[in-house]
Amino acid sequence: MAEIRPFRVDVPQERLDDLHRRLRTALWPDELPGVADAYGVPNERVRRLARHWLEFDWRAFEARLNAHPQFVTTIDGEDIHFLHVRSSRPDATPLVLTHGWPGSVVEYLDVIAPLTEPDDDQPAFHVVIPSLPGFGFSGPTRTPGWGRHRTARAWVELMRRLGYRRYGAVGNDGGSMISPEIGRLDDGVIGVHVTQVFSFPSGDPAEFVGLSEADQAALEHLEWFYANKFAFNQLHSQQPQTLAFALADSPVGLLGWNAQLFGESLDDDFVVANVALYWLTGTGGSSIRFYYEDAHHAEPSAGPTTKPLGLAMFAGDFQSIRRFAERDHANIVSWNSYGHEANGSANDAAGHYAAHEAPEVVVADIRRFYAALA
Which pTM does this prediction carry? Predict the structure, then answer.
């Protein structure tokens, strides 16, 4: 079914009332004193976020979403929700922007206006921001296999249905894995812009010879993350349904689980808006299946990607290492690091959700990248 249907967010009041009741009557876990976050997300942080959630104005946020044109279409048997905001400029370049977990379309709301309606001397873009299958208003998936490759194929079909034959692909987190695959599939993709390059050591000792101090530090941080913060990936990849019971029944459980990957520097409104979107759409459990699908339905590598690729990484995120990236991407044309002293950036606090934390920097990097490809 190629029909594209208008969509408007309208959560029933009884869903909001039930949410508030559950938040007010939540049962809280015991916690060892003085251990900070060594055992996981601390009670104090989740309690603070839960109090904020009770005060969070969902209707105002709903209105913010509904200020943008939204649609749903069915692709490969699944409903796909997306925002589609066209620029008034006839020379605008289409972009498809893809989020990951535990993010959502929320992370790109701050870049819509500057991308679509810039000053006259800046390039303009039509933006398409889909909710990943199994996430948010796309609703829970009904079939297995929705990892990066099947999603990339769906996005190619989505852009075709919208009439876009020449476009760019932008991604963060899971979107940074999906977007290069879109470039593999569609000759019409002019370039791929990401905020992370997920290329890691293969185990060959020769790969480590001559690494710069900065790359060695990035590798050490990555090893620390694997050793201390990677449990979510293991569980999602092996037993997502086991965790889904808790995520479906308890908004505080969902809040605690998703908040582990929302850094302390993020504002509470952003964290709560993302978690609320998962809760109110019943996609806490289906969203984490993305990891299982990628782990169990991986497709053979077709060799390095060849579409022009640009990276904008931020100091508050893990740092991609170019030596490893060049093994997987043969045409890296832009590699920018923000928030480091050598770069002279004032955006030291920006991290994994840079489109929200430093939208002006992300927009400027996207503009430069695609202007160079014109």
Answer: 0.96
